[in-house]
Amino acid sequence: MKAEGVTRFPASIREINNLPEKDKHEIYKTLVPDWVSEDFDISSDSVGKDGQIQYMCPAGSRAMEVSVRRNPADIDPILYMNIADTFNNQLLVLLMVVNNPDAKRYNVDIDQQGNRTNFGTSSRNIPAELAAMKAGLSPGQVREGLRAFKRSVPHFELFVNSMGHDMFFIEPLAYHNAIVFERYGFNYMRGLKDMQTIHQGFQSDGDLYQKLTPNNPFRQPNAWKSVRGRSWAIHDGILGHPFTGFQMYKRVGHHAGVETFPNAIW
Description:
By secondary structure, the protein is of the alpha+beta class. It contains 9 helices and 9 strands.
């Protein structure tokens, strides 16, 4: 259905998930950004168990997942998104991951006993984290990204608009994620004051700055200067508690102009 030139989808993930398989796949393939086919020659019709694109969208569920792999047997997807309805029928991006399949892999997601680290919240693989940090990666990254977020946001906004929504929510899993989202126009539903407090804490007279030390590779004295340095220190527990409870939102076509780390460098 079209209105004012915009294709109209059902207003919730659950409604889409309850559609026939073919129909919901036709809708969800619009989530896959153009750069996937342009950069990796992956057809939006390469779907299913043996395809490059896989959807997890069972009928009755309020959530969906899409993963795109260059080869179906690859461990890591090029693109992964997990989206859900909130209880008040808003859209929430639970997780979005972009990987460069040609980049070296760092097993920060699996500890030395073979258990999932769950982004470092359950356990950590310190040797892998040190190697990833040295290679310029941020906490939680198993491979370097593709710098594709900028190209993906407008595409996702079109999907959101087609569902009749004018905004969507996202949960940053780490400090550097929040700063990235700020740069692309997101505002805070929860956590703005906490982000401002973190920034003040990393100033020369701040409590976090005082905890930086050459004796800890994740909390080096110059870590306060960069987004990545701060994020690794926070991942290492410098706050005294996990980086949780943050939620951000983006209004379609609007840049909020929020900047909690002015003139940030990476």
